[in-house]
Amino acid sequence: MQQNSTPKRNPLIWLKDSWHLARPYWTSQDKWRAIGLVAIVIVFNLLTVYMSVLFNKWNNKMYDSLQHFNQVMFYQLLVKFCYMAFFYILFQIMSYYFRKILEIRWRRWMTQDYLANWLDKHAYYKMRFVDNYADNPDQRISQDIAAFINTALSLTLGFISNVVGLFSFIFILWGLSGPLSFVIGGHHFVIAGYMVWVALIYALVGTFITFKIGRPLIKLNFAQENLEADFRFGLMRVHEYGENIAFYNGEKQEYQGLLVKFNRVVNNFMTTIYRQMKVDIFNIGYSQIANIFPILVASPRYFAKVIQLGDLMQISGAFGQVQGSLSFFIDSYGSLASWRAVMDRLYGFQSVINQSYNLQSIHKQKNDVDYLKVSNLTLKLPNSSRVLINNLNFNLKSGDRLLIRGSSGSGKTTLLRSLAGLWPYVDGEIFQNKTTKELFVAQRPYIPNVSLREAICYPLMDNLPDDDVLGKLLDECGVNYLVSRLGDLADWDKMLSLGEQQRLAFVRILVNEPDIIYLDEATSALDEDMEYKLYQILVQKLANSVIISVGHRSTLHQWHNQEINFNCN
């Protein structure tokens, strides 16, 4: 399975890319609700910061009461702590609740948007023709969108809270730390609010070292996502082709193949762990030193009796808040690295969808005359000058039936893809009556994971026929024993044989009543008697419909009045 590599863009451009991914929602019809929810979350975050300021001042008074053995003040402060803690918890919970509401609304909108774009203009199919196509679209839609939104909100709201906290505590720290006086080379220097500068330098040094150590995590996380998806895809293939593997007794080969994929997951995972350990070793040490560092720096003023114990502890708390706010990117580096990887996957997925839109395919010209007319149709292979079909012409009117024959690889199925507008490497003209509707039936029919009733009627969604009508159609197509299971939900493509699935496909045709029917080896798993019966039903019940069949059997000739044999070209 091909995998797209890590996008190599300028490190600053990813900020622009993040807004590119987020902008559609924040300019959508839901933007005012989203802005309102953000405002509510910010308000509660600001209230939380305000409570932190009050706790910082409370620490000063509490330690002063202990230093002066003031028991009355001590118990008063305990009571005050209780109601302060109550409001602090309340604000935190409300902030969390409204943030999650915003998160799920954003995810619902973004998922709907990506699904619509992915399914629009057959992008989900045409993506395979794009260079560096986006693998595992299921993961990108189901997991990466959620991860992008969660991290985006965490980083954005966390940044806002930390900026507010920084400015709130920086003034406290500035006022409490006082001036630092020292003499160098006979010159007297005074640094006002020196603890603020110490916190700034401490955070900048820590940020620089963390980014230096942790930079490789971005590529490692991106690679881990791809390798995990590749391993999961391998498991899905074994599940999907379990019967074929069992017939071949291919368990040993599959085991070895899966083990190779999993070993790649493990190796990259271990490399990520070692790199993350280096980041964690520094961060843990950095955080532990931060607990004692402000006390160490401010202790000379305490021992000089310029400040009291409460002031010292308040300085320590304020320093921690300022340093913590300045160290926001240190604490968030792991999230930033993962976010970059997720964002690259979503950006790449979106880019491939847009590229698939630009792939040329024939636009059917609607008219009021012909059911289907093909003029000078030429089909080529992808990224190749080889021509499969050259200057093909035919005209089908109501009731016409065309048989397409040819050896494997001659372009029979590719022709059907071109007629359906799925094949991008095609020239010529296709005219189709604007009132007609069409239905394509492959050799292995698509059976969605829904009730049998809905699977038979697919893609019809409304005004489904009642069970009596379906029962008669099932009986005519030789699968009347499934009538009692119309309401059952099961993996029908796994439970039914290919022959049963092909018979159900003919029931689907009769339910949908298309004007143009494409049958690609649609009776290959049936015996000749059943094939005769099913074609007879189509010709009788859908006499005005055009049928285009791809097949090899000589028994198909009797049902068609036109034939194209690519072996004769």
Describe the fold and architecture.
The protein starts with 12 loop residues before the first helix and ends with a strand. Helix 18 (528-541) links the parallel strand 9 (516-520) and strand 10 (546-550). Helix 2 (31-67) packs antiparallel against helix 10 and helix 9 packs antiparallel against helix 10 (309-326). The chain contains 18 helices and 11 strands. It folds into 2 domains: 13-358, ABC transporter type 1, transmembrane domain (ABC transporter transmembrane region fold, Up-down Bundle), CATH 1.20.1560; 399-426 and 433-568, Rossmann fold, CATH 3.40.50. The strands form 3 sheets. A 5-stranded parallel sheet has the order 8-9-10-6-11, sandwiched between helices. It is an alpha/beta fold and 569 residues long.
Condensed summary:
This protein has 569 residues and is α/β, with parallel strands linked by helices.
**Overall spatial form:** elongated
- The parts where pLDDT drops under 50 for at least 5 residues are 1-8
**Would you tell me the structural class of the helices and strands?**
alpha/beta
Which homologous superfamily in CATH is the superfamily of the largest domain? Answer: ABC transporter type 1, transmembrane domain
Strand order, main sheet: write it out: 8-9-10-6-11
User: What is the CATH first-level class name of the largest domain?
Assistant: Mainly Alpha
Biggest β-sheet description = 5 strands, parallel
Calculate the terminal CA-CA distance, rounded to whole Å.
35 Å
Number of DSSP E strands:
11
The overall number of domains is 2
Q: Within the CATH hierarchy, at the fold level, what is the topology of the largest domain?
A: ABC transporter transmembrane region fold
Question: What is the level-2 CATH architecture name of the largest domain?
Answer: Up-down Bundle
Helix-strand topology string: HHHHHEEHHHHHHHEEEEHEEHHHHEHEE
Gyration radius (Cα, Å) is: 35 Å
Approximately what portion of the residues adopt beta-strand conformation?
Answer: 5-15%
Q: State the share of residues found in helices, binned by percent.
A: 55-70%
Question: What is the count of helical runs?
Answer: 18
Average pLDDT: 84
